[in-house]
Amino acid sequence: MNTEFTELLRPFLKFAGPEEITEDARLRDLGLDSMREIELLFAIEETFGVAVPDDKLVDSTFATAGGLWGVVEELRTPVGGGSR
Amino acid sequence: MTAVAGYAPAVETVAEIAAEHARQADETAAFPTEALAAMRRSGLLGLLVPEAEGGAGGTLPDLVDVTLALGRVDMSVAMVFAMHCQQVAAITAYGGEKLRAEVLPSVARGERYLGSVTTEAGKGGHLLTAESALEHDGEMLRVDRQAPIVTGGPYADAFLITTRAPGAGSAAQVDLVYADRDQVEVEVTGGWRPLGMRATHSVPMRLRGAVPQWQVIGEHGGFREIATTVFAPLAHVGWAAAWIGAAAGAYARVLRHARSEAGRRQFAPSSELVLLRLAGIRARLDAAHALLRHTVSVVTDAPDMSAAPVQMLLNTLKIRAAEESFAAAHELVELAGLRHGYLTDSPLALERTFRDLRSASLNYANDRLRLANGALSLRDPGVRLA
Asked: Which residue numbers delimit the Carrier domain (chain A) (predicted)?
């Protein structure tokens, strides 16, 4: 996870405090609620220039910081692999 | 043969007894103890207990059938039944082996009626947060939980309680814990003086005690998943069935009255006004019932219950069933007039159904679900209709 991503996450996690946000951080435990999930999604799409497909918009995508980052990474990778 | 076909006589018996006591229970805001006793005796409490654990192995459509039937005679009884089944389903799906073995066969034998403790002051009706904590005390987990509304609480043999997980850093880490009545000190901290659904006897309570680790249902902090896959779907489906049943029962009483000798003078079949009103009410019931059945089939086959289209459909069911059922009751009152629509001693009991159904939009607030659906709809720009 890059810093840009974790700092983007932080305002949505009202219980995270100043501590480091790790890959296995459970986003809902840290205060991400379903009403703000969509705002987080918009922020991610704008910042990383990706469009998260509808079928990824399920609870499991937003379960952990690392899992969500994985989805972003996957979407940033051009089809057929190759360098970023 | 479905479970419900086998249970038809049980449903009939319970409905008869519920009908017999409905007026008294409503007048005194007393719990329907006779109907509960009949549910125990007849095995109906075990409808959703798997066959392997001694139950009927009933499915979601079975729950709907039974709840609709009970709702026709007493909405409170239907709510009590549906919410008990919601607890059974949570234990069946997420309870550990020991808990299932301890609890489910006794539910099937009618020995345990399960109460639900999810409300909490200060959290504004949010299901997915908890303020009071579950704390380690040696091998045990200590519970001290106050809840403003516990349906049938004083009559429950055991409770499923939401609490903050041990050592939780936030109110969003919620556990669901099973507690037998003899494991907790039960204190009723107030009364129950509502407009309607009076027989649910949903008093405020304080529960204090300790339970072993194996009575935590699912993992620590796992309530969110239980809520998504079991609690919310069964609540919305069960409530919708109770409400639609209540409205259908009232409608049936009006129609029977309209066809009686006395009623024929009041409800002339040549009156276009009467016909239009009757058609409008029927349309509400058919639409809400169709939505209920469709939602059940979607929920039964959904690969991921957290998907936005499924969540929105479940919320829409709750919202629309509440609105249509209450509107139907309102129109029945209007149609029947003062004598049969408004007086408490009318045998049609429309005013009771009207008061009961007024609760529907508030029983998990429709507005809160509309807000959720607004956010969810942005998660589904493709509008994948479920």
From this structure: 1-76
